[in-house]
UniProtKB/TrEMBL annotation:
It comes from the Bacteria. It comes from Flavobacterium rhizosphaerae. SUPFAM superfamilies: Bet v1-like (SSF55961). InterPro entries: START-like_dom_sf. This is SRPBCC family protein.
Amino acid sequence: MLYSLHRKQNFPTPVNEVWEFISNPKNLAVITPDSMGFKTLSSDERSMFAGQIITYTVTPLFGMKLQWVTEITHVKENSFFVDEQRYGPYAFWHHKHFLKEIPGGTEMEDIVHYKLPMGFLGNLAHPFIVKPKLEEIFRYREKKMIELFGKYKLQN
């Protein structure tokens, strides 16, 4: 079964400033909960580019440290990038990050499609373990992004 996660968030910050932050692989650790034990192992010395392979470790559940390898497959500066898992905890992971200029700031949108390993057992774990964990990670990310870029107020 293919699952999805969709989030949108607005900031009173120009697109290029948000892009500068989210396109730097080192900043992923800033917006990831400490409980995940996130650590970049390679390829965090440059901004995102198509073909970039990023290796890191995460400790998502029960203290199990896992290696995760993603490839940045598409990049359009100040607009979007896509990361896809090449090796890691999911059977499939495809994450699109979009930025769009809006009146008074930037809209950031995340669309994730993922499939769990272990077939039936993975699907059984989804509502009780995986989905709540992903929701927690993205809530933390939203909170950190507001701390960094401010809360967007609707334009009149």
